[in-house]
Amino acid sequence: MHREIDIENWPRRSTYEFFRDYTDPFFNITANVDVGRLYDFCRGKSLSFSLASLFCSLRAANDVPELRQRLVKGRIVEFDRVHATQTILNDDETFSFSFYEMRPTVFEFESAGREAREKYRALKTFDVETDRLDLIYYSVIPWVSFTAFKHASKLDNTQSVPRIVFGKAFGSGGTRLMPVSVEAHHALVDGIHIGKFFSLLQQNLDDPQ
Questions:
Q1: Residue 47 domain-assigned?
Q2: Which residue range forms the structural domain that includes residue 44?
Q3: Which run of H or E residues covers position 171?
Q4: In 10 A of CB 42, how many CB atoms?
Q5: According to the model, what pLDDT value does residue 209 have?
Q6: b/e for 172-183, b at 16 or more Cβ within 10 A?
Q7: Domain with 49 in it: what CATH number?
Q8: Which residues have CB under 8 Å from 53's CB, separation 6+?
Q9: Residue 38 domain-assigned?
Q10: 126 strand-pairing partners
Q11: What confidence score (pLDDT) does residue 155 get?
């Protein structure tokens, strides 16, 4: 389900009109988050850390309305809920995509996510829910604790699905940190909204239940 934004009376109208025709309206923010508590939680509950991280991030994204808004043929729609596609590594060191439906709890999400991961690993395809916009596009780069990230792009300024990337977790001062990159369309999303996302993400990582 979704609703259409009334652009004429939208507080962000001027910002939207300023950025919508940029050739490259996408901006990226990368920050480290503390995943120590989530790591211990997953180890104690025999959960996949990767899937639990995805759940925490997706739950945070769903709590920020601007990350659920999309451009659709000159209109702006806000979805009630968004889901995820994410890269998965294949045995031959290529990658493909998997679809993960949002679930109410980390336990339900993790269980369904394991099934989805095996299903899509067998399919080995990029053609995963390609007609849907109620998504966040996720990638995982578990080999590098990156400090910045740039996506490949066709420079289509109507592409409005946010992209989130997880990097390699690393130890620092007795804590376990993980870099997270967020890329969004500036006609829909501002820095304050990414700030809200990171704050909610950290809350979820500290208490994923």
A1: yes
A2: 2-8+25-206
A3: strand 170-172
A4: 20
A5: 82
A6: eeeebbbbbbbb
A7: 3.30.559.10
A8: 35, 38, 166, 178, 205
A9: yes
A10: none
A11: 83
